Amino acid sequence: MERPALTPQLGRTRVMAILRSVDASGLPAVARALAAGGITCLEVTLTTRGALDTLAWIRDDLGPEVAVGAGTVMSCGQARDALAAGADFLVAPIVDADVIRGAAKSGVPCYPGAWTPTEVHAAWRAGAAAVKLFPASTGGPGHVRQLRAPLPEIPLLAVGGVDVAHAGEYVAAGACAVGIGSPLLRGADRDPSAGALESLTTRARDLLDAVGDTVRLPHPEAEGADR
């Protein structure tokens, strides 16, 4: 089985914005504001009411320059529905080998959630494009560094409790990218006023600048990591 490549927009920006809300009514405006700020990899979680219709709408509205995927994909049925809606990638909080393999067979990147070395390795063997280290904040950047030492070939996407101020630290520790939701949106999904959306665009630019500055630094080796 051929492993799908990392989503190009994620590889370029190192940031995935997570769009999670009670309902999806405010998400199209949020997606436009994020794209205006340069964040072009967007995850719409299936825990959001109307997620798949909104995913399809955002994808059509923003065009091919923006990758729009489905998050919290917990079953093969959800994966099929998401792919039918046009999802460019799938994200999950767990390792489900059937979901990962199904996405890989469809040529779609899948980012399953894992925490331990065994889970990370199992997700990678099943065909993940990268493994979502979740929840990342529980172990912080140090956990990324420790995992990268014995598993350097497996790209890790740090998600869960990552905030804008510390996102660069996860990339500096070896994460291929970060995923950020509410600390980035700050309620703009619930109140998509012009001012809130302008502030969101500014935060998106600041986040990309911070992560970009980290990426341009010499990449640290995982010194001191226990194997």
Spatial arrangement of strands, main beta sheet: 3-2-1-9-8-7-6
Poorly predicted regions are 217-227
CATH architecture group name: Alpha-Beta Barrel
Largest sheet: 7 strands, parallel
Brief synopsis:
The chain is 45% helix and 14% strand. The protein has 227 residues and is of the alpha/beta class.
Map the helices and strands.
Layout: H1 8-13, E1 15-19, H2 27-36, E2 41-45, H3 51-62, E3 67-71, H4 76-84, E4 90-91, H5 97-105, E5 110-111, E6 113-114, H6 117-126, E7 131-133, H7 136-148, E8 156-159, H8 167-172, E9 177-180, H9 182-185, H10 194-216
Parallel strand pairs: 1-2, 1-9, 2-3, 4-5, 6-7, 7-8, 8-9
Helix pairs in contact: 2-3, 2-10
Task: Write up this protein.
It contains ten helices and nine strands. By secondary structure, it is α/β, with parallel strands linked by helices. It has one domain (8-216): TIM Barrel (Alpha-Beta Barrel), CATH 3.20.20. Strand 2 (41-45), helix 3 (51-62) and strand 3 (67-71) form a beta-alpha-beta unit. The radius of gyration is 16 Å and the shape is globular.
